[in-house]
Amino acid sequence: MMPFQHLLDLMISNDIAQLGDFVGVPSAEIQAMELHFNLKFPVAYREFLQACGRSAGHLAGWSSIYFDDLKEITEEFEFHWGTFKSAQPCANNPLPHHALLIAHYENHFDYLICDASSTAIYRLSFNHDCITTYSFSDSFEAYMESMILAAADSSGQIAPFFIDECGNMIKDDLRIIAPEVE
Predict the structure, then answer these.
(1) How far apart are CA 144 and CA 141, in angstroms?
(2) How many Å apart are CA 30 and CA 13, to the nearest integer?
(3) Residue extents of the structural domains in the chain
């Protein structure tokens, strides 16, 4: 297991966050969320929540990954699942027992298995007529490292997350980058 401090340092060195951007979650709130889901979160995930489970600068972009998103991620999954199930009534819920949905973006949901010996991350995607599920990362730490590196481009600047109606790239901090003029 990689020390979580390494991941915090990686966010700082890649200008994803500054030390003051990290806002963690108290243990009591984590325990309450574990009770809500009737799951025991893996140690690596608890370390993430305690260190930066409420905020980690520009890490998430428009994805839902934080502690306060967990219930909403589950609700979004249930909405997608209900829509899919209405078109495919014989389909079985694709989430395994003890799965915790930890991230959501558009029709993609990332989850880990609580009470498992590993912290592998899996991705489940809803498509028009099927659901795909695959192993996404070997561990939560590797998942976080990939997310951090993806959030920064090669020059160490925050990667843009969307383009406005004029074609300008807008960063997560809402600063606009003018497009290059030839």
Answers:
(1) 5
(2) 28
(3) 4-177
- What is the second-level CATH architecture of the domain 4-177? 3-Layer(aba) Sandwich (3.40)
Hey, what amino acid is at 84? F
Sign of CA dihedral 84, 89, 94, 99: positive
DSSP string covering 123-153: EEEE-SS-EEEEEEESSHHHHHHHHHHHHB-
pTM value is: 0.79
Question: Minimal CA–CA distance to 52: which of 8, 95, 94?
Answer: 8
Asked if 120 and 108 count as a contact pair (C-beta separation under 8 A), the reply is no
CB 110 within 8 A of CB 122: yes
| Residues 6+ away with beta carbon under 8 Å from 24 | 49, 50, 51, 52, 53, 54
Reported confidence tier of residue 124, pLDDT bands at 50, 70, 90: very high
Separation between Cα atoms, residue 145 and residue 151, nearest integer Å? 10
Encode pLDDT of 3-40 as tens digits: 678 889 988 998 888 888 899 999 999 999 999 999 99
